[in-house]
Amino acid sequence: MIVIGFMHYRKKPTNRAYAFSAVAKSEGAELLFFSPGAVDFEKRKINGYMYEKGEWVNVISDFPDVICNVTGFSKEKQDEIVDKLHEEIPFTSYPIGSKDTVYKNIMKYKEFSHYLVPSENVLSIERFFKLLDKYGEIVLKPSMGCQGKDVYYIHKENSFYKVFSGAQETNYTFEKISDFITDKIGKEEYIVQPYINCRTKSGNSYDFRLHVQKNLKGEWVLSSIYPRIAESGSIVCNLSSGGYTTELTVFLKAEFEDGYYDIQKYIETFSLQFAVHIDKIQKELYNEELDELGIDIGLDANRKICIYEVNWRPGHPPCMNLDLNVVKNMVHYSMFLANKNSAE
Predict the structure, then answer these.
(1) Which domain covers residue 166, as residue numbers?
(2) Residue 52 — φ and ψ, nearest 5°?
(3) Is the pLDDT of residue 233 over 80?
(4) Cα angle vertex 199, ends 239, 294, to 5°?
(5) Helix, strand, coil: what percent of the chain each, to 5?
(6) Which stretches within 152-230 are classed as H helix?
(7) Paired residues of 208 in beta bridges
(8) Is the pLDDT of residue 15 over 90?
(9) Who's near 168: CB < 8 A, 6+ residues apart?
(10) In this predicted structure, what is the pLDDT of residue 320?
(11) Which of 20, 38, 173, 251 registers the highest number of CB atoms within 10 A of its CB?
(12) Are 232 and 307 contained in the same domain?
């Protein structure tokens, strides 16, 4: 029986680990929950947990066949253990880099570059103002950001610079906006993109999250697509930052009426073709294979797809049915890697 290691920074099983364990058992595999500190390399054993007869049981286990590395680690000692495990056991996930790195890689390989929203890492206040003058309306966001945090919509109106953070609006003078931007780019990397006017009929900003994963055959499949609609007055569509969602077909019918089906098929086809392309880039540049991606897109005035960003470890979908589908694909791909490794 294949044993899937579920490696987490927490020492005891999380709620989500139960879903992984239940799916693994239904697929003929076993899940071993553990943290890096529970690994004994000398004895080649792990002090972890398995779910048996309705409860988590502490077990001393052999090393698993594959490791599902679903979280990151902040301590140097943990990273050392993770790196050592990786030398012996296949991992499911690999990072794709910052937003700026992903953007440059897609531009380099050209095939999907025409879908990209222009994006530039802002290194100086002078460059910021040149980009603002060029585009008129811009979005400023951290290169390594997530969950819609520290995302700003900025445009100039008369002698003031209007900055929107969520639904909150602030007016800045030239001096104040200069200080604001200098402070931001002095602390971390920020990128600027032109604002794409992707709005519902009622005026709310929206985007789509495309969640793609690999399956039991190691092939890309579409796990979920869902729209994310920003609260009134905000451009941030992320669900953790005040956005909300609805069922995809319901949304498309409301917004595009008779054209909804063509839009849906267009997005579905794009999601899988783009995943294959990004995976190819990862293999050629880093000799790694990806397992899942969260692709954030909008539609411009001509209903053309615009890629905002591509995310590694895209998080949980907004409803239980979609999340269970994601968990099942993660378990399946883990089993694929285990079988592939044993055959080599």
Answers:
(1) 120-194
(2) -135, 130
(3) no
(4) 40
(5) 40, 30, 30
(6) 174-187
(7) 227, 297
(8) no
(9) none
(10) 56
(11) 20
(12) yes
pLDDT at 110: 92
Phi, psi of 194 (to 5 degrees): -65, 145
50's tokens: 């398995």
Q: Taking the CA of residue 198 as centre, how many other CA atoms within 13 Å lie in the half-sphere pointing to its CB?
A: 25
Count other C-beta atoms under 10 Å from residue 285's C-beta: 14
> What is residue 323's three-state secondary structure?
helix
Instruction: Specify the amino acid at residue 66.
Output: V
pTM to 2 decimals? 0.89
216 & 297 share domain: yes
Dihedral sign for Cα 329, 331, 332, 338, please: positive
Mean pLDDT of 185-206: 92
Model confidence pLDDT, tens digit, residues 264-299: 999 999 999 999 999 999 999 999 999 999 999 999
pLDDT computed for residue 333 by the predictor: 97
Rounded to the nearest 10°, the torsion over CA 227, 231, 237, 241 is: -130
Q: Is the pLDDT of residue 99 over 90?
A: no
Number of domains forming the structure of the chain? 3
Q: Centre a 10 Å sphere on the Cβ of residue 227 and count the other Cβ atoms it contains.
A: 21
Residue 157, CA distances (Å) to 133, 135, 161, 174, 296 in order: 12, 13, 6, 12, 29
Q: Is 119 helix (H, G, I), strand (E, B) or coil?
A: coil
